[in-house]
């Protein structure tokens, strides 16, 4: 990320820079990203580093291309497909981010 962002996500901790951070978060899955977002809301001046081993963010939640009927490739979400009514914290995050949820039949 650029210098204007208070949050930096890196996959290689062993750079020549000896930057200093107020907070280091290990993992850029939903928990790590939510922690960084909550910290940024409460203390915008914190310098936050998120360290991630994979080449993408999202943890076990990600979107991939799946071949559907015919030759068309469609986006398909994997990982966190289901959120139950009792999972109020993640439902609040989804609402805050403006993401849609769909009713699941029981």
UniProtKB/TrEMBL annotation:
Its EC number is 1.4.3.4. One of its GO terms (cellular component) is mitochondrial outer membrane. It catalyses: a secondary aliphatic amine + O2 + H2O = a primary amine + an aldehyde + H2O2. One of its GO terms (molecular function) is monoamine oxidase activity. It is an enzyme of class 1 (oxidoreductase). It is a single-pass type IV membrane protein. It is found in: Mitochondrion outer membrane. Residues 30-105 form the Amine oxidase domain. Belongs to the flavin monoamine oxidase family. This is monoamine oxidase. It comes from Mesorhabditis spiculigera.
């Amino acid at each position: 990320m650029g210098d204007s962002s208070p949050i930096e996500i890196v996959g290689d901790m062993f750079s020549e820079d000896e930057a200093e951070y107020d907070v280091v978060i290990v993992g850029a899955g939903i928990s790590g990203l939510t922690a960084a977002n909550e910290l940024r809301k409460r203390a915008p001046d914190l310098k936050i580093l998120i360290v991630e081993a994979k080449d993408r963010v999202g943890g076990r939640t990600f979107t991939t291309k799946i071949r559907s009927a015919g030759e068309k490739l469609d986006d398909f979400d994997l990982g966190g497909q289901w959120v139950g009514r009792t999972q109020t914290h993640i439902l609040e995050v989804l609402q805050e981010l403006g993401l849609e949820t769909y009713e699941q039949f029981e």
